[in-house]
Predict the structure.
Amino acid sequence: MRSHDWFLRDGQAGFKARSRMKNQGSPQQMFDGRPVIGICNTWSELTPCNAHLRILAEHVKRGVLEAGGFPLEFPVMSLGETLMRPTTMLYRNLVSMDVEESIRANPLDAVVLLVGCDKTTPAAIMGACSVDIPSIVVTSGPMLNGKFQGRDIGAGTDKWRFTDDWRSGQMSTADYIESETCMSRSDGHCMTMGTASSMACVVEALGLMLPGGAAIPAPDARRRRLCHFSGNRIVQMAREDLKLSRLLTRAAFENAIIVNAAIGGSTNCVLHLLAIAGRIGVELTLDDFDKLGADVPLLVNLKPAGEFLMEEFYYAGGLPVVMQHLREVLDMDALTVTGESHAHNTAEAVCYDDSVIARLDAPFQEGAGIVVLRGNLAPDGAVIKPSAASPALMQHCGRAVVFHSLEDFHARIDCPTLDVDEDCVLVLQHVGPVGFPGMPEVGNMSLPQKLLERGVRDMLRLSDGRMSGTAYGAVVLHIAPESAVGGPLALVQEGDMIELNVPERRLHLHISDDELAMRRAAWQAPPPSAERGYTRIFLENVQQADRGVDFDVLVGGSGGAVVKTSDAQAGS
């Protein structure tokens, strides 16, 4: 095992490694060759969704010790979507580097990835993939259902609704403030099918989590038992050398795409799966999401696409039931962290509530998966989530109302003189990976106040940014190439006619090729948003949305070998 080169060496090198570890109370028998298990913890009080991960880490440690392993917890940078600015997506790749280098540089034979809030999950997996040692994922779990004025409310999704009602005068300020407390009332991440819940389900579908683990509510004692069992299992995975590259096959990614469609999952999962595939060396393209997932029906009735929340999903049977219902279209023989297939893991799954989880032959909605659009406005692709959008807007042509930046949008969207009606198309430029920078979740632009007051609740909106998985609406996202690098979105002008045709997968700007070429010739790149530091590194290395927004220099991996060591020299 990797750790043997640290702890089983003779002479000064072994002496130094063992001696310094003993200052924490580790006895000699911990250095007898047993697997050393890293517990990679994205805990932070600045990441409310992950703030209880230190408690969960203790349960993982118990499981590791019980199975004969040596658990060692280590921190990495955490990403909290609710507090971090300008956007957590700016730092996803940085955390992946932190995870990768922390694993490779230390005497770890396997790792448990403790994650939760949106970007910590893909970041940790990306970093672990680049080292490719045995790894298992444990997420923080969803919060308990929000409770407000006698009804259940969902984090994120109902925030958008309440904000529209408050802005239009239909909700008092007192009720608006009270709903904050009622919405977030326990440990855990968003309990809607937002990005955190979607990624948890996707990770389970990839085979990187123990069966049923995605949906257990954060405060439920069964999540702590999941941690204990994951600690047990990772020791065995280390002994079996069950690496990520054996689990993350093309079949695993295909399963994840299909499952994300069936659960009404987040568009953010497109970016993260593309990035993870790039790290592990599996060929995956944007078009795979349309080909494999667009026609998959919606089986899970959760907000924002449906009615219920993650508590009901867990009580109904969770993801094992979904996978059993999808067994005709999934590769159920794909290997998982249990050492067994999905078919084996889910064989006993039972649906306890078909109002929450539907059968494949009686879905809640047909063709609910993420659709990939192309056209002269998105030559490298864009995405839309029809299950969360108004059906009437899936074929629409309207006049563009253009905002050149997020600041411009905030300054003008509620201006009484803004020339806009419900048939217009709101266009937001310069919020892509380079333009913002970091690609924030602002694609679901707030509607103009004067239209909200008239009862309008959805409009066609286009941007090169992202949308929270908890959000909804007829929102076209991830337009590539982005406007800041000269993509066609940068050339859209006020009053242009834009056509969306989801059935034909088309996003078209109704101007001539000659006019488009003339505008492109006159276009000037905006100045870079940073001259130094990590943001400059981001700007110089980030790829576009159709490639997962990973760094070009991070695609692939370097394995677990340490190239050089100073152990032959005298220790400090």
